[in-house]
C-alpha cells in the first residue's frame, strides 16, 4: 500500500515533491497496517462472535488488562514520535518558507493592475537571481520578473534551479498552490512572503488559488511552465519585447456576461479587478481552463 | 432517600392551560414539545427534532452542491449561489445540527444517567434551547436579504467576509455573524448548565469513577465549550464590528491583521471538533458493552483519556494554519501537539475493539451504526495523523483531502454515532420499539453512501483539487461523479429513518423499561421516564458496566414501588402541586 500511494499523487515536478511523497508513502504504510488490524479484528468479532438467537447470557466479565493497555499506549507513542521526527526532518529539508515582512496595503486609490510603471522602477535591482514577484488579486495571477522587465499571467521557471518568490496580495488572502510541486502558501494581504522551491521536471503544470477568495475563486488558476535554461531565457527575451496588453481573464469575462443578462441568477459579488496588463499571457480568451499537465507513465 | 418533592416545578406554573405536568412520551401531550418546558427530557427531544430538521435542510444544500460538481463546469447554479450554498451548508450542519443535536442527547441522558431529577438550571436550559430556533430563523432569513446569504465559507475569513458587495448594513454576512454569536451564547449557557449538573447533581454513591462513560465525555466536551467558545464569540463580534461600524481588527487595509482572526476562529473551532466527537465516543462506550454483553474494557483509562483529549485539544489549533501566515517554528510545535492527541484517542479505539472482542454480539441497528461509526472514525483518524504532519499537510491543505477527512469524522463517526444513539435510546424516549428491518436498511444505505461520497474526495485532494470550487479541471471529473452519486444515495438514506421514527413513535410496539437488558440508571425507570425521573433518588453501589457479573447497580428501587406505579405517580404530582 505504501508503494501504491505514489500513484495517487500528481507527477513529481519539484525536489520537494520527492520528499513529501516519501513521507506520504511511509504514513500510508503505517496507516494501512493499523486500519487492517483494527477493522480485521472487528470483522472477525462480527462474523464469528455473534450471540445465538435465544442466548441471553453475558460475555466474560473482563474489565481490562494492564499489560495490554500499556502496550497499546506505548506503541502509538513510539509511532507518533517516529512519524513526527520524519515529518520534522522533511519540513527542514524543504525550507520553502522564508521571512514574512509587513507591507502597507495599497488603498483603493492606487488601483492595482498598473504594472508597467512598477516593473520599470524595479529594474535597477541587479541581484543575480531576483525573486519573481507574485501578485495575486481577485481574480488573477500576475508574475513579474523585475530584472528582465517582464510581466506575465503564466509562470515560467527554469528547471533544476531554486525558484524564489515574493508573494503579495492586493485584496484578500489567496493561496499559491502547485499540486505537482506539493507546495502551498497562503498569501496574506499586508505582508510580503518569501517563498522558494526547486522545479526538477520540465512540463506544464497547473497553479491554483488554494484559499477561498470569493466569487470567481475556482477560476483563479493558471499554468506553470518549467523549461530548460535556454528556453527560459528565450521566453524572457521575447516577452520583454512584446508590448503589454490586457490578458484574458475568466472572472472578467464571466462578470461582463452576467452583467449583460437582464435577469440575475446569482447573488451579490465583488467586481473583479481589471484584467492584468502583461507582456505575456496564456489562456487565449477561453472560459475553460486548458487541460492539465501532460500525463506520463509514473514509476 | 425519599426527597421526592423538594424541588420546585416551574413548569406547572408556566404552562397555563394544563396545570398538571404532562407525562413525557404520552402522545396526547405532543403540544408540550412546542411550549417553554423546563423538563430536561422535553428539551432534549426539542433539541433533537429541531436539529434534525436543519440536518435535512443542510443536506439538501449539499445535494445541490453535488449536483453542481457532477460536471466540471459551473453550470447548474451561479458561482455566487454555489459559494453561498457551501457557506450555509457548513454553518447549518455545525451550528444548527451537530451542536443542538449533541445538546439534545446530553440534555436527555445526563440527568437520567447520574440519577438527577432535572438539570441544575432548568429555566436556563429552556432559554438556551429557544435561542436555537431564533438564530436558525436569522440564518435562514439571510437567504432572502438583498445580495443573498454569506458567501465567505463557514470560517468567514476576512478580508473576504468584510467585502460586503451589497453595501447594505443588513446583509447575509452580518446576519450570519449575529446568528453565530447567538449560537455561541446559547452553547455557553448549555455548557454552564451541563457542567454544573454533572458536578453537583450526581446521586449518592456515584463517584467520578462510577459515572457512565457518556457522562464523562459530555463533561470533557462541555469544559472545552467553556474555555473555547468565548474566543469564537469574541471573534465573531469583532468581525461584525469591522463589517458594520468600520473598526479594523482584521482589515489589512486599515492595519488590521487577518491572520489574528484565524487564531481566534481556530482556537475554538478546532477544539469544537472534540466537543462534537467526544460525546460520540461516549455513545460508543455505552453501546458496545450493551450489545457485546461485556464490560467496557479499561473503563478508567477510557474516561481519563477523555480529559486528556480536552487538555490537548486546546493546544492544537494552528494545524489548520500550516499553510497560512505562520512561521516555521509554530508549524513544528503544533505538529507535535496535534500528533500527541492521537494517543488518548487510540487508547479509546483499542479499548472498544477489546470490548467487542469475545463478546456475544447482537447486531441491532444501534450496534451496526456504532461499529460503522467506529470504522469510519478509524479511517478518519489515520488520515488525521497524516494531516497533522506539516509537510504533507502543505500539499493537501485546503484540498478535498481535508474535506474527505472532515466528513469521515462528522458524517461518518458523528452522524452514525447520532443514529446509534437514537436507535439505542428510542425505546426509552418514546416507550415504543422501532422497526429493526427499516433500521438495518437505513444503516446499509448510510454506510454505503458515506463511503461512496467521501472516499473519492481523498484521491481528489491528493491530485490537487482545491475545496470550495464551483468548477474544476476535467481531470477530476471521474471521482466527482462517484462522489455525487454517493451524495444522492446519502440523501435517500434518510427516508427509511424518517419513516421508521414517525411510524414507530405513533404505532410501535410497547418497549418496556429495559428492552436491551442494559445496565444504567436510565433503564431502571419506566419508558418514557416519568416527570422528574426518579421516584426515589437511586443509591449507586456498583461501577457502571457490570455485564457478566450479578452485582446490582443500585441498592434501592428508583421507581418507588413496583406494583403501584400509577398510584405513585399521582402522589408525586400531588406533592408537586403542594409545593
Q: Whole-Å distance between the termini of chain B?
A: 18 Å
Number of strands of chain A: 13
* Apparent shape of chain A: elongated
Q: Which chain pair shows the most residues in contact?
A: A-B, 95 and 106 residues
Counting DSSP H or I runs of 4 or more residues, the number of helices of chain A is 5
Ranges of chain B where pLDDT stays below 50 over 5 or more residues in a row are: 1-22, 561-579
Could you characterize the architecture of this molecule?
The complex is a heterodimer of chains A (299) and B (579). Chain A is 31% helix and 22% strand. Chain A is elongated and about 85 Å long. Chain A folds into two domains: 4-46 and 66-94, no CATH class; 105-260 and 272-278, Cupredoxins -  blue copper proteins (Immunoglobulin-like). Chain A has five helices and 13 strands. In chain A, strands 1-9-6-2-3-4 form a six-stranded mixed beta sheet. Chain A has a five-stranded mixed beta sheet with strand order 5-11-10-7-8. Chain B is built from 17 helices and no strands. In chain B, helix 4 (122-141) packs antiparallel against helix 5 (172-200) and helix 5 (172-200) runs antiparallel to helix 6 (213-245). At the A-B interface, helix 1, helix 2, strand 8 and strand 10 of A face helix 3, helix 7, helix 8, helix 9 and helix 10 of B.
Short structural summary:
The complex is a heterodimer of chains A (299) and B (579). Chain A has 299 residues and is α+β, with helices and mostly antiparallel strands.
Write the layout of secondary structure elements.
The complex is a heterodimer of chains A (299) and B (579).
Chain A: H1 15-48, H2 66-94, E1 97-102, H3 115-121, E2 132-137, E3 140-145, E4 150-152, E5 155-158, E6 163-169, E7 174-178, E8 183-187, E9 191-197, E10 203-209, E11 221-227, H4 229-241, E12 245-246, H5 250-260, E13 277-278
Helix pairs in contact in A: 1-2
Chain B: H1 10-14, H2 40-69, H3 79-114, H4 122-141, H5 172-200, H6 213-245, H7 258-292, H8 299-313, H9 328-340, H10 342-356, H11 365-388, H12 390-396, H13 400-430, H14 436-454, H15 457-463, H16 477-507, H17 565-578
Helix pairs in contact in B: 2-3, 2-4, 2-16, 3-4, 3-5, 3-13, 4-5, 5-6, 6-7, 6-8, 7-8, 7-10, 7-11, 7-13, 8-10, 11-13, 11-14, 13-14, 13-15, 14-16
